[in-house]
Write a structure and sequence with these properties.
The chain has about 600 residues and is an alpha+beta fold. About 20% of the residues lie in helices and about 35% in strands.
Length: about 600
């Protein structure tokens, strides 16, 4: 399951290769092309690999070819238009009046946009001019009125042009035909997924199964999609979960045992970061309450979500947790006094409804299964600490406070807060100095202008780690003393003529979002903006004494979890999952038997030592 057999993202075993590369085929045992992107983790059990993808997006026409045809038609139309407008203006006074009004409106629109743009840039000169201009055009009330008039004038003039010129009429029809095909392209939202079983030794596809859903989400959304939940297997059965509202059990040779559906909460962005958990005979899923549950009376317009224990053999619900959970949250299972518990969180953006904000440690055993051992409320107006992998152990639980970054450390046995560490004061930074072309370490620093990158947190060897959004930095906090260190990571690696990796720092790496069939299957343009952009990246994993972080651009950073000093020496390796600008992933790395398994939008990858 997600996070390994114990669900904690901490695993041990024979050491996998430190260095690997898709670009140079270093330590790549096999690659399997996927017909569509997907975001589930990779479950490895015996000689089988399980994962999920979105149902392949299959347009009737190639969108790129349609766009090329549209561009060609528009060029041809512009040439014809220039000629016939001059001819019609010579003899048609009514047309000339329409044309004059159109030109006047056009000048007014440009003048209004320019004036508003100048005013906004005076307030903040650092704004992107092109994006700002487009935003003014979209929202300026007078511009919107004039553009509506322009559309009416264009239609009136086009009727005259079509009657006058056969060439213009043919081009106008061709433009309308292409635009209709573009409008009829399938939506880049979907609710259906496909579960896959591969041979762990060869990558061969053994079988696959579709799982329909009911609530659509964007394909390859940077904050999860329908395929995000990681499959679970016990070696005899595999359980696939579709975040859009279905789950089922199959034998490992592909025979269905049971299948069930539910309706997920939907009145918010599709940010479903929960991972199903296997504990005993139960699979924990996150779902709204059934209609007959008396707790629904305290809900408002939006449904609350709860952990639900599903019998792994029958698919029947055995209990629903006492406390709610935000579907942004990734609950984590663990043990306390020899018994299993799960730490779950509530709170976040977009008016998530579940209350109270904060944490609950929930029992997973006995007659009180589903009831909380303790609750903790961070007393924040907008608590974002639940947008995390909710790590804990038999000593501590954690909550990262936003704004002025602070780390709350709780006693995991009682839920009492032990520490609150300020992460922006008296910090140590080791950042790349461009002028000196070397790392520079500074102490007792006051940190400003940083935001943590959600769901990139992990705890290892007494330190709490997380990435920094847009900065290509990783933070390390001593959970007892609060000592905080920031280390800059390269934004890209390049192979030099001598065959060694050269690191690039602090440069945005634009990325494409095309699947293996060449289709751009991403609705949200933000996910093209680089490796540490605002998103939910794959959860980091600790294998032995190494921490693996993966960026959206397909770089895998390997850090030393035992590093005494958090500087350049703590970066053991920076590896790649594919070509620069053509590799997209928000997936976690998996480990089994000395091998690593990873995936991008285009393929699944097995990494191991090639002898």
């Amino acid at each position: 399951m997600a996070g390994g057999p114990e669900g904690r993202w901490l695993v041990s075993g024979p050491q996998p290769p430190l260095n690997f590369s898709i670009r140079t085929n270093q330590n790549i045992l096999w690659k399997t092309t996927l017909p569509e992107g997907g975001q589930s983790g990779i479950t490895v059990c015996d000689d089988m690999v399980f994962l999920s993808i979105m149902k392949p997006w299959t347009p009737q026409h190639d969108p790129d070819k349609l766009k090329a045809q549209q561009d060609e038609i528009l060029k041809r139309k512009a040439v014809i238009l220039d000629v016939i407008d001059k001819e019609i203006l010579d003899f048609n006074s009514a047309y000339a009046a329409l044309h004059s009004t159109f030109k006047s409106h056009d000048a007014q629109i440009n003048d209004l946009i320019t004036k508003r743009l100048e005013m906004l840039l005076n307030e903040d000169p650092k704004q992107n001019v092109d994006k700002l201009r487009e935003r003014v055009r979209r929202f300026h009330p007078r511009v919107k009125e004039l553009e509506a008039e322009q559309r009416k004038l264009t239609n009136q003039m086009d009727r005259v042009r079509i009657a006058y010129s056969g060439d213009y009429a043919a081009t106008h029809k061709a433009k309308a035909d292409i635009e209709l095909k573009i409008r009829n392209l399938p939506s880049l939202k979907g609710a259906d997924i496909v579960g896959y079983c591969l041979d762990a030794n060869t990558g061969e596809t053994l079988w696959s199964v579709p799982l329909k859903g009911s609530v659509e989400g964007p394909y390859n959304y940077g904050f999860s999609d329908s395929s995000s939940p990681t499959p679970i297997s016990d070696g005899r059965h595999v359980w696939f979960v579709n975040a859009s509202g279905s789950m089922g059990c199959w034998t490992v040779d592909g025979q269905m045992v049971w299948f069930r559906e539910w309706t997920p909460s939907a009145k918010a962005p599709f940010n479903k970061q929960f991972e199903p958990i296997l504990t005993g005979d139960w699979i924990l899923n996150v779902e709204p309450l059934p209609n007959d549950d008396p707790r629904k009376k305290k809900e408002g317009e939006r449904k609350w979500n709860y952990l639900r224990a599903i019998n792994k053999k029958t698919g029947k619900t055995e209990w629903i947790a006492e406390d709610a959970i935000t579907h942004y949250n990734t609950p984590v299972v663990g043990n306390l006094n020899g018994q299993p518990y799960v730490l779950q969180g509530r709170g976040g953006p977009h008016q998530v409804p579940e209350r109270p904000n904060g944490l609950s440690l929930t029992r997973l055993f006995g007659k009180d299964a589903g009831k909380a051992l303790w609750h903790w409320d961070p007393q924040e107006e907008i608590p974002f600490g639940a947008l995390a992998n909710q790590h804990w152990d038999d000593q501590f639980a954690y909550w990262l406070k936003t704004g002025h970054l602070k780390l709350a450390v709780l006693d995991s046995k009682t839920g009492k807060q032990l520490h609150e560490h300020d992460l922006l004061s008296h910090a140590t930074t080791t950042l790349w100095n461009k002028e000196k072309e070397n790392y520079e370490t500074l102490h007792e620093q006051t940190i400003r202008g940083i935001v943590d990158l959600r769901h990139t947190n992990i705890v290892a060897e007494g330190y709490f780690y997380f990435l920094i959004r847009d900065k290509w930095q990783v933070a390390r906090v001593n959970v007892v003393t609060g000592r905080t260190e920031y280390l800059e990571l390269p934004s890209q690696i390049h192979r030099s003529a001598q065959g060694v990796n050269v690191w690039t720092f602090n440069e945005v790496q634009p990325n494409d979002t095309r699947n293996s069939r060449g289709f751009d299957v991403a609705q949200d343009p933000r996910i093209k903006l680089g490796g540490f952009t605002k998103s939910f990246l794959g959860a980091p994993t600790v294998v032995n004494d190494r921490i693996y972080f993966t960026s959206m651009t397909g770089l895998v950073y390997v850090l030393d979890a035992t590093a005494p000093t958090f500087n350049r020496s703590a970066i053991l390796a920076v590896n790649d999952l594919g070509p620069i600008g053509k590799t997209w992933t928000v997936n976690s790395i998996s480990y089994a038997n000395g091998r690593l398994f990873h995936r991008t939008m285009k393929e699944v990858i097995c990494i191991g030592e090639i002898k």
